[in-house]
C-alpha cells in the first residue's frame, strides 16, 4: 500500500505538470488520469490475487517444495519460513527439527521422561487453575506465541472461555489484518484475515473468539523500523483499551513483543510502551515447547516429569528467565511460563495433540496418484478460501492420514502444487459427518 501510494502521488505530480493549463495536451488530462487510475487498480487487484494464492494451501505447498529443494543453501530467515509453512500444513515434527538458529544446528528434540529427576525447584500449576486465577486478578494479559508452533495457538484457544467467564471483553492478535467487525459479521477467518491465521489451529482460535463474542482486532504495522512498529502496536492497543472503562483484554503477540521491561541492546518492546501508555501493568505469559535449540526445555521437562497437558510456572522462576532472556533489564522477565508436553507425533498419522479429547479424529486414505498433496477439512457452509479446521500435507508415497477436527460437519478438499484436485480418498473412520468434494 505504501508503494502504491507513492506511485499514485508520483503519477499525479507528473500528470499535473505535463498537462497543466495552457499546454496543448491540457484537454486530455482526464483521459490520462482515468487510464493511470485503471492501470493502478488492475495492478492492485493482481497483487492482491497473487498474495491470496501465496497464502493458500496450494501456496504453502509450493513454498515447502521450493525451500526444501534448496535446503542446503537457504538463509536463516527462509528456514523459519519453511518451518512456519510446514507447521501450517500439519507437519509439526518436520517443522521443529529444522534448525532455525545457528545454536540449534546438530541438536535433537527432547525425549519424554519416565519420571522427574527430582522435585522441581519452582511451583508447577495446572494451566486451568492458573489461568482462572490470572483472569480473576488481571485486566490486561499478554500471551506470547512462537510462529512455528501450532500448539501455542491451540492452547490460547482453550484459555478464551476462562477469560470470557472472568468478563474479559477484547481479544487482539498481532496477525489480524481485516477489521474485527468484518470478521465477526462473516463468522469465520479466510485468507484475507491475516498471515499467521492461515494455520488451522489459529483459524479455530479465531472462530472460538467469535463464538464467545469477544471484540476482535489486530494491531500490527508492517514496518522494519523497530521503534515505529513497537510504538504503533502499543498506541493501537492503548487506544482500544482506554475506549471502555470496563475493558479487559487478551493480547496475542509473537515472541518478544510481550517483554514489559527494557531489553538491553535492543530497547523497549510493545508491552513496555503499552504499560506506560495505559498505566496498567500487563501480565505477561511466555509459552515454551519442545523445539530447537532445547537445552533449557530438556532440563525443565526432566525436572517436571511426564505431562499430558500444559502446566504453568507462576510466578516465573528468575533463574529460568535469566537463561531465556539474559538481556532483560529486570528478572524475572515475564510473569508466567507455560510448559507444553514434549510429545510430537510422526505425521501424516500419529497427530494426536494435547487437547485431543475435545476433538474428532478423522482417519482416511489418499487413493490418488498425485503428490505432494494437501488434504483439508473445511466447515460446511464456508467457502474454499476459509481457513481449514485442519489440514495435512502428504509427501510422495504417503497414503494414510488423520485429521483432528472440532465436532462439526465438514467437507474434505485437496490441493496439489497446481491447484484444487478432485478428492480421491477414502474416509476410514469419522465421528462427524464428512463430505468428499469431487
Helix and strand layout, with pairings?
Elements lengths: L1 H17 L10 H26 L2 H13 L6 H13 L3 H5 L28 E2 H11 L2 E6 L4 H16 L4 E4 L6 H7 L13 H12 L3 E3 L8 H17 L6 E6 L15 H9 L4 E6 L6 H10 L6 E3 L4 H7 L11 E4 L20 E7 L6 E7 L10 E5 L5 E6 L4 E7 L2 E3 L3 E5 L4 E3 L2
Helix pairs in contact: 1-2, 3-4, 7-9, 10-11
Report, as a whole number of angstroms, the end-to-end distance. Answer: 38 Å
Strand content: 15-25%
According to DSSP, the number of beta strands is 16
In sequence order, what are the helices and strands, one letter per element? HHHHHEHEHEHHEHEHEHEHEEEEEEEEE
Helical element count?
A: 13
Residue share in helix:
25-40%
Task: Give me the side-by-side strand order of the main sheet.
Answer: 1-7-8-6-2-5-3-4
Q: Could you describe the largest sheet, including whether it forms a barrel? A: 8 strands, mixed
Q: How large is the radius of gyration?
A: 24 Å
Mean pLDDT: 89
The backbone outline, from C-alpha atoms, is globular
Identify low-pLDDT runs: 41-52
What keyword list fits this structure?
eight-stranded mixed β-sheet; alpha/beta; globular; 18% strand
Notes on the protein architecture:
The chain is an alpha/beta fold. Helix content is 37%, strand content 18%. It has helices at residues 2-18, 29-54, 57-69, 76-88, 92-96, 127-137, 150-165, 180-186, 200-211, 226-242, 270-278, 295-304, 318-324; strands at 125-126, 140-145, 170-173, 215-217, 249-254, 283-288, 311-313, 336-339, 360-366, 373-379, 390-394, 400-405, 410-416, 419-421, 425-429, 434-436. A hairpin with a 2-residue loop joins strand 13 and strand 14 (419-421). The longest helix has 26 residues, at 29-54.
Amino acid at each position: 500500500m505504501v508503494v502504491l501510494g507513492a506511485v499514485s502521488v508520483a503519477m499525479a505530480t507528473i500528470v499535473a505538470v505535463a498537462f497543466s493549463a495552457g499546454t496543448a495536451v491540457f484537454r486530455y488530462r482526464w483521459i490520462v488520469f482515468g487510464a493511470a487510475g485503471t492501470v493502478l487498480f488492475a495492478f492492485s487487484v493482481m497483487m492482491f490475487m497473487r498474495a491470496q494464492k501465496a497464502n493458500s494451501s496450494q501456496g504453502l505447498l509450493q513454498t515447502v517444495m521450493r525451500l526444501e529443494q534448496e535446503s542446503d543453501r537457504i538463509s536463516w530467515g527462509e528456514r523459519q519460513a519453511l518451518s512456519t509453512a510446514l507447521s501450517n500444513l500439519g507437519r509439526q515434527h518436520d517443522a521443529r527439527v529444522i534448525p532455525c538458529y545457528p545454536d540449534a544446528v546438530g541438536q535433537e528434540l527432547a525425549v519424554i521422561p519416565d519420571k522427574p529427576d527430582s522435585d522441581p525447584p519452582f511451583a508447577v500449576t495446572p494451566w486451568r487453575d492458573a489461568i482462572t486465577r490470572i483472569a480473576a486478578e488481571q485486566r490486561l494479559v499478554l500471551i506470547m506465541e512462537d510462529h512455528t508452533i501450532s500448539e501455542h495457538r491451540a492452547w490460547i484457544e482453550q484459555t478464551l472461555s476462562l477469560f470470557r467467564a472472568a468478563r474479559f471483553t477484547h481479544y487482539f492478535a498481532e496477525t489480524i489484518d481485516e477489521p474485527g467487525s468484518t470478521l465477526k459479521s462473516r463468522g469465520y477467518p479466510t485468507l484475507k484475515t491475516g498471515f499467521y491465521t492461515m494455520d488451522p489451529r489459529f483459524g479455530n482460535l479465531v472462530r472460538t473468539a467469535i463464538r464467545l463474542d469477544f471484540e476482535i482486532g489486530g494491531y500490527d504495522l508492517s514496518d522494519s523500523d523497530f521503534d515505529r512498529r513497537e510504538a504503533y502496536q502499543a498506541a493501537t492497543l492503548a487506544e482500544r483499551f482506554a475506549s471502555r472503562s470496563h475493558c479487559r483484554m487478551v493480547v496475542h503477540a509473537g515472541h518478544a513483543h510481550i517483554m514489559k521491561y527494557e531489553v538491553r541492546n535492543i530497547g523497549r518492546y510493545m508491552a513496555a510502551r503499552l504499560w506506560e501508555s495505559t498505566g496498567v501493568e500487563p501480565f505477561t505469559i511466555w509459552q515454551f515447547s519442545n523445539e530447537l535449540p532445547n537445552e533449557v526445555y530438556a532440563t525443565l521437562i526432566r525436572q517436571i516429569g511426564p505431562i499430558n497437558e500444559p502446566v504453568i510456572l507462576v510466578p516465573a522462576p528468575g533463574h529460568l528467565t535469566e537463561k531465556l532472556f539474559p538481556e532483560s533489564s529486570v528478572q524475572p522477565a515475564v510473569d508466567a511460563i507455560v510448559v507444553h508436553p514434549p510429545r510430537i507425533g510422526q505425521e501424516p498419522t500419529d497427530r494426536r495433540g494435547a487437547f485431543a479429547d475435545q476433538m474428532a479424529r478423522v482417519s482416511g486414505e489418499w487413493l490418488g496418484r498425485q503428490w505432494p498433496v494437501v488434504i483439508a477439512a473445511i466447515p460446511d457452509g464456508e467457502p474454499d478460501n476459509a481457513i481449514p479446521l485442519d489440514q495435512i500435507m502428504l509427501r510422495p508415497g504417503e497414503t494414510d492420514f488423520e485429521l483432528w477436527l472440532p465436532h462439526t460437519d465438514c467437507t474434505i478438499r485437496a490441493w496439489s502444487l497446481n491447484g484444487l484436485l478432485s478428492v480421491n480418498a477414502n474416509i476410514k473412520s469419522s465421528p462427524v459427518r464428512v463430505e468428499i468434494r469431487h
